[in-house]
Amino acid sequence: MSAHDDLPTYSIRQLCREFGATARALRFYEDKGLLNPARKGQTRVYTSRDRARLKLILRGRRIGFTLSEIQEMLDLYDRKDHNVHQMAVALPRHRAQVEALKRQREDLDEAIKMAEAACEAMEKRLSEHRPDLLPGADDYETVLRARLLDDHDTHKARA
Asked: Which long-range contacts link 87-93 to residues 24+ away (Cβ below 8 Å)?
């Protein structure tokens, strides 16, 4: 029994469950050379290293990096230098991505404001000219008719 036999391993199902990924995604990352699980027959066996790489891949994707950018940064991993070279390359890329994401957020906020203003203008115009075409108008009409019928029936019963 080698020292490697004592290291934890993970199945594709375990990693999918842990990270909310699909088996198809893991196989795709394997095809792209980002993950390299061992095989026991047809079964993929992932190591702690694979698990750590998957975590970085998914984080990189969420941040918005391409797979090739992620691959470049993962390839720089070197325990001997405490990953300082990898971090020196990754840091400016992350800073640039933060700025790009902030610009996207500003663009989205502005687009939301524009869409909200357009909705308000359309709702105002519809309420002035055709309130029956407003969203929810059918529900309002149904409630109103039920109340009118109920009031009419109550009034009849009293008479």
From this structure: 93/65, 93/69
Element (H, E) at 88: helix 84-129
Please say whether the dihedral angle defined by the alpha carbons of residues 140, 141, 146 and 149, taken in this order, is positive or negative: positive
pLDDT, tens digit only, all 159 positions of the chain: 444 567 899 999 999 999 999 999 999 999 999 999 999 999 999 999 999 999 999 999 999 999 999 999 998 887 788 889 889 999 999 999 999 999 999 999 999 999 999 999 999 998 888 888 888 877 767 766 777 777 767 767 776
Task: Provide the 3-class DSSP secondary structure of residue 26.
Answer: helix
Q: Which helix (H) or strand (E) holds 103?
A: helix 84-129
d(CA 110, CA 67): 30
The number of CA neighbours under 13 Å toward the Cβ of 110 is 6
CA distance 31 to 24: 10
Query: φ and ψ at 11, to 5 degrees?
Result: -90, 165
| CA angle (116, 121, 127) in 5-degree steps | 120
pTM of the complete model: 0.70
